[in-house]
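Why predict the complex rather than its parts? Because the way molecules touch one another can change local conformation, and only a joint prediction can capture that. The input here totals 726 residues.
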Amino acid sequence: MKHTISILAASAVLGSTQAAMAATEIEFWHAFTGRLGELVAEQVEGFNSSQSDYTVVATHKGNYSETLNAGIAAFRAGEQPDILMVFEVGTATMMGAKGAIKPVYEVMGDGFDQSKYIGSVKGYYTSPEGDMLSLPYNSSTPVLWVNRDKLQEAGIDPDTDLSTWEQVGTVLDQLKDAGVDCPMTTAWQSWIHLENFSAYHDVPFATKSNGFDGTDTELAFNSPAQVAHISAMGEWAQDGKFIYAGRRNEGGANFRGGECALFTESSAGYAGIKAEAQFDFEVRPLPYWSAVASEPQNTIIGGASLWVMEGQTDEEYAGVAAFMNFLSSPEIQAKWHQDTGYLPITSEAGELTREQGFYEANPGTDIAVIQMTAKEPTANSKGLRLGSFDQIRTIIDEELEAVWAGDKDAQAALDSAVERGNALLRRFEQASR
Amino acid sequence: MEKRVTFKGIWLPLLLVLPQILITAIFFFYPAGQAIWQSLFIPDPFGLSMQWVGLGNFEYLLSDRFYRASFITTAVFSILVTVVSMGVALYLAILADRLIKGSGTYRTLLIWPYAVAPAVAGVLWLFMFNTRVGVVTWYLGLLGYDWNHVLNEGEAMGLVVVASAWGRISYNFLFFLAGLQAIPRSVIEAAAIDGAHFWTRFRTIVWPLLSPTTFFLLVVNIIYAFFETFGVIHTITSGGPQQATTILVYKVYSDGFVGQDLGSSAAQSVILLVIVSLLTVIQFKYIERRVHY
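Output of the joint prediction:
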């Protein structure tokens, strides 16, 4: 804040010692509204009242894409905030913007202990050297939501094993035969059925460790494993066992309304489902194909992280570090995790949540944490770092729609998505040279 | 005899057109020039560096078969929106023109939809045709028709056309009604006395006399369909399913603001600029000849 020094000087002259006047202002732009917006405001309020040196000012800038665009436009005009929330698919864009961002590990200084952050969460946002470039804020991972009443009605044991897609396939047959209109639906098809699918089965989504090792990466999700999965999903779609509701989380309404039996969606869908579902529901781990992998690897995250923008004063950076330490503290993290269903970013916060008895009181809420952390991430399951990835997802959406509609077979659709996506990756490579 | 107003000097006419020139320069020439300049580079999103690529962005775009397909989509969409909105508006205007009682109320009600912003119109139509909770979808289901614009390309196109044309009908209706009312009654009555039926009168008298209005609306509606329907498409289909409703202007947005590829986005703006200029030239050169003022 430019005026800080003059205010300091003025207050010194006047002999005033009012701390509030000297507080350095930290601008924080985020993308949350509704309940999540309230929870952000609560965190900010908590930080501001816990000390008197800094005042965080949180501003809502629209959805994820709009917030990123607002940050970019502001940077171009020299008016960037201190902290910008960027969704996970914007990670490569932010990393490529050297000179626009200040890596979090630099902001946090020498005493920064990066090891307390959960590997599979922070992994998405670390440099090849293992340094954290941004602070994970809200992270979730896909799980399988089950409407137990619907299974019961169809004469299926609600406790039936659904850990593999083979088993899910059998249950879908039974549901269809029992006359269920919507045996299964999904949200975020690319994220769950290609990105997470690849990590979970330890097959590459893209070359160069999914883009972590360089911008000269190429998409690789048209290999036999992914083709087999999309092919099976396509057949289910043709048979009316998988109902496609839309590119984002439109399917959520169908599941919460009690229409669908199974639903693949983010673990952060918890709050909404708990609030609306008039039936007995349950969280299960995301299924895997036992024909592809003997046991699943870990899933990867979705959500957003906090990036620190370049061009601020040292004082402001000190404030940013203080705020980020506050957010990372076990109490604040545990509360955030329990309120939202997002994953805790530190293992301490996870342990605290367990000690508080939250997982026992809310069965299934730890499934996502276990699924993420059971195994050490591999090069295929650390995350994705691909330029123009928001747009590549649109391409994937388009091609998958062709499969669900029966216009293309899985191989042709995924080949086409890879080819079109690679063209965008080459543009990004050229732009970030 | 010279019918036009003429000025003796050069300074007064210059002064009179100056405000217009200034506004055009600031709000049109400057941004258009910027777009042309940017289309020659691949910049990074944050504006930290720019790489000169000459016509590289245009080569990249025109070699993309999906971009070329978007021209066809745009043509189909614009023609449908124009035909539907003008056809329905003309029909309603003819009916309103024949009304004696209650025409004021009728007119007012028909004008209302024009006040609805495109994005809001999109949401309204989306609710009616929502595949799960939509009223229309439900009735269609009763009739045995399974409406699913989320996967069916034809239905998606139909829905965005109807949603885009709907608000536009009001606007076109106003102009058509004014045009119809400006046609002298005596001419129509004379034709009626001579034994001309409604259709003959419409074809030989009303339609030709209405042609200036029709021509104006044609130009304005095509430009509307090209540029202002973004909100409808964004809210209803986001360009899908597959690329069924990705019109050129939607692609400018998605490349620029989703993909942060400003070079490609600028190049597409330039291409759009050329297309619209060409269309307008064609309209004024060929269609206007058939217009009777």
